[in-house]
Amino acid sequence: MDPYKTINCKVIKVIEETSLIKTFILEPEKKFSFATGQFIQLTMPKIGESPFTPSSSQFAKGPFEVTIMKAGRVTEKLHELKANDTVGIRGPLGTSYPLNEFEGKEVLLLGGGVGMAPLRSLLLTLLDEKDKYEKITLLYGAKNPADIVYKDQFESWKKRGAEICRTVDAADNDWKEKEGVVTCLFDDYSVNPKNGVAVVCGPPIMMKFGTFKLLELGFAPESIYLSMEKNMSCGIGKCGHCGVGKYFACKDGPVFKYSLIKDIEGIWE
Amino acid sequence: MEQKFISNEKVKALTKKLIPDYEIFYPRRQEESWDWARMEADSEFTFEGHRTVLPLKYFFYSPQENLVEKKKDKPRIIFGARGCDTKGLSLLKKIYLEDPEDPHFRKDVLVFSADCTTHHPDCFCTVLGDQPWATENFDLNFSIVENGYLVSVGSDAGAKFLKDHGGFFESARSEQEKSMSSHRTSFEEELKKFNGNKVLDLKDLEGKIEKHSDVFKEYGKTCVSCSSCTNVCSSCFCFFLSEGDENKIRYMDSCQLKSYARVAGGANPREDLIERFKHRFTCKFVYRPQMQGFNGCTGCGRCTAGCQGKIDFQEVLIKVAEAK
Predict the structure, then answer these.
(1) How far apart are CA B115 and CA B102, in angstroms?
(2) How many contacts (CB atoms, under 8 Å) link A and B?
(3) What CATH number does domain A7-93 carry, 3.30.420.40, 3.40.50.300, 1.20.140.10, 2.40.30.10?
(4) Mean of pLDDT values over B219-230
């Protein structure tokens, strides 16, 4: 099997989340499944490839979803895709969230900005087997109300049993929830580090201060999971680009226990 | 396994016989250096000398290639690969051939290595505790003895080759085996002496690289991020994957280039040149031995020879390794 060969996917639907973020519903031509937290390489033929973590539940049958922020050459082209267009994928690649280690625990998801995409996959996967977990909480922050992704979905997640608190860095007149950086959500929300695990995904600066806050609240480094965004190119541990210290984020990650990488210099950069 | 002898005449006859079935390369002398040349029926060659300017690795994969199924080329035989290059293959094979196997890394290459009889001014395999002859990843090894070569077997493929071409080889005599040992010992001594009889202890390098980052600041001053050091390295493996017409295109990439680790959106964990220069040492002597079990350096000295900033990589390594 050639790990560089792509599987074609038909674009079923494009959802505009924010001015810079779109969600694509993709239907693979061949059988494809992933474990939540794993990533794929999305290929624009003759343009390039970029890594993304699917944002749908690992249990969802058929099409899957990918949420993409316009941030560079490839994502600009990806944003031009319309229903019925074709893209390529390679994967699934890398490590997934260890759901068996979460069973019986209070699972806290701490997300920022488009970092909500992998966490949405995890959240939906957890909610699909809700009874296995003591509690499922999402603490989410965005720059402003307009930048919130999956705007119309939070209510349905609450109905399915998730506890959700949200904040924005800069509120507008209509915003009724918290204002401030994501860690301020802990002012009003009490956590249970003794029987809890926390999963963090978002921009590097948010992940850094989010992780430090969790440690301060008493979470053990072994109970904090990070989804690391690095420059994955081959996705199979050969090209060297996505080094996190001695690890390759594409193969040893992208999901890392914080305890594994806490002493590595520059992980937040 | 029993060693064999092949005379100078027979080795020429053998290569002539092999040319129709194999693509064969050998080290050709160019004044003071050696480069790879394609073996032709009238090629004059000897396996004396030292490592070539370009590394062995590019016979296994191309510096730039389309990752499409290739039309079946002839299998390759590489004569005269040196110990530093065969050692470098350990890391490359670990990376490319394991979990998952990269189908574009060639497995139809026979390596017929040869003992070094001279050295380049930048060679330092002995400083790393290695020897100037092949100890791994060779199929047959050729050691110069009187009127020919003593041939040792390094793999099943090498043993099969000897069996298939038995008529060219004869049993080695004990004085030929002794002669090989004494040549090896005396040349190893010569190289050790040239390198000040140093053998570095690389065990505590992780802490030392961080502690003595001033060494990298000092030596990195003349680095121009040209990536020569990684391109000619016997064991650097990094590449970038891009889009081709049918499948991907892969081309060699370098951790010394500024854009190497940059992610979409512009964040770059190694924007600073000195950090990149230091990273190359950490990767080679800390990360790769910890994760893949092999050093990413075999002392071939090509990085120093090819450096546009005249950086002596061996000197940097010694300075850090010997610091307290």
Answers:
(1) 30
(2) 92
(3) 2.40.30.10
(4) 97
